[in-house]
Specification:
This protein is mostly beta strands. The protein has two domains: 84 residues, no CATH class; 36 residues, no CATH class. It contains one helix and eleven strands, in the order βββαββββββββ. The structure holds zinc ion (3 copies).
Length: 130
């Protein structure tokens, strides 16, 4: 088996919060589970689904511009030009935060909940929560 080829979608649903605990939900649509309180939440957002369906992307193999045509992420796609199959994955939300000690900007993946990270510049640990 070849390595699976993936392309990251550029479109993400708007940030949604859990109706039970008010925390940030994972950036997905459909039946999802709150990572903070475990509640099962059904989310949907028609404008995002429409944008997903119409999303244009370049084939990772031959760079031909393709239209996703699928209103869900991840989606299995096949390039009409070179027949390469690949997975169009959900967009990973990245946020910029500032280290409270040295004020350096750090880019990180946005994940629900609180966690402690260590600043790569000054090595002081601090807490972040979303
Ligand atoms: Zn929750
Ligand atoms: Zn191609
Ligand atoms: Zn720092």
């Amino acid at each position: 088996m070849d390595e699976p080829i993936t392309v990251e979608s550029r479109i993400a649903p708007p940030p949604l919060s859990c109706p039970k605990c008010g925390g940030l939900l994972p950036s997905e649509l459909g039946d999802i589970q709150c990572e903070l309180c475990g509640a099962n939440v059904r989310t949907d957002h028609a404008p995002t689904r429409k944008k997903w369906e119409e999303e244009r992307l370049s084939c990772p193999s031959c760079s031909k511009v393709l239209i996703a045509g699928v209103n869900d992420r991840p989606a299995e796609l096949r390039c009409g030009g070179c027949e390469t199959q690949f997975t169009l994955t959900a967009k990973v939300i990245r946020v910029e935060i500032q280290c409270p000690s040295c004020e350096r900007s750090l880019r990180m993946k946005q994940r629900p909940g609180e966690r402690t990270i260590t600043c790569p510049a000054c090595e002081v640990p601090f807490k972040v929560s979303f």
